[in-house]
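Dear H.,

Thanks for agreeing to be a second pair of eyes. The structure we're designing against is below in token form, covering all 224 positions.
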């Protein structure tokens, strides 16, 4: 019996969109486009991140469509805040900017899609469906720049996180599959002491869980 391809994730109906765009004519045009298309609902149209954030907190959309060049708080800073609050919330950038720095900053901040404002309306709507369904839509020019950026990027073979020998031993135990209790028995200390040292390790690696610490230790060759 052959493996079957799983069905795609069903989309909400309608797809609720929050729009953040400071240029009035563009904002109003997008509001009409989204709100007037079957399967979509524009639940908020905002001229700034400062205006949008509390409203999004009150009513969570299925997707945020945001500009980068906003007055006051930038779109990049705003989506960073949104991703901290709602890690699963898909954010699609719609902007005139296609330079490497802004593309890289937006993706690092948590944007899952990046379209240029010259994108045709039909493609914009399709991109909203795509990103809610788990995709990562990008304008062709942006996708090409992203590929070039990653091709140019060569991570170092080893990154120094200033991990002490004792912390390194604890990390190695985690990589080997130990939990805090069994690591404490192995080292000969209390679980409380392990927890204290792991907190320091998390801060140095800038991670928030055991699985993230193990992944980073292996990826950055902290543990060979």
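And this is the sequence the design step returned. I haven't edited it by hand at all.
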């Amino acid at each position: 019996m052959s493996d079957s391809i799983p069905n795609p994730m069903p989309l909400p109906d309608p797809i609720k969109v929050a729009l953040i765009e400071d240029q009035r004519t563009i904002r109003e045009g997008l509001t009409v486009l989204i709100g007037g298309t079957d399967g979509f609902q524009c639940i908020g149209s905002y001229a700034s991140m400062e205006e949008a954030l509390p409203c999004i907190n009150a009513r969570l959309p299925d997707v945020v469509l945001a500009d980068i060049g906003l007055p006051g708080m930038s779109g990049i800073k705003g989506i960073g805040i949104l991703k901290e609050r709602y890690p699963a919330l898909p954010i699609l950038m719609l902007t005139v900017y296609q330079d490497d720095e802004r593309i890289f900053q937006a993706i690092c901040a948590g944007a899952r899609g990046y379209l240029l404002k010259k994108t045709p309306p039909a493609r914009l709507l399709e991109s909203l469906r795509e990103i809610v369904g788990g995709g990562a839509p990008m304008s062709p020019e942006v996708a090409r720049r992203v590929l070039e950026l990653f091709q140019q990027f060569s991570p170092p073979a080893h990154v120094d996180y200033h991990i002490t020998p004792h912390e390194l031993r604890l990390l190695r135990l985690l990589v080997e599959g130990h939990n805090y209790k069994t690591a404490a028995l192995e080292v000969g200390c209390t679980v409380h002491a392990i927890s204290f040292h792991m907190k320091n390790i998390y801060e140095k690696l800038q991670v928030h869980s055991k699985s993230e610490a193990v992944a980073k230790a292996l990826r950055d060759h902290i543990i060979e």
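Two observations from my side: The beta strands are 15-20, 40-46, 63-66, 91-95, 113-116. The first helix runs from residue 24 to 35.

Warmly,
E.
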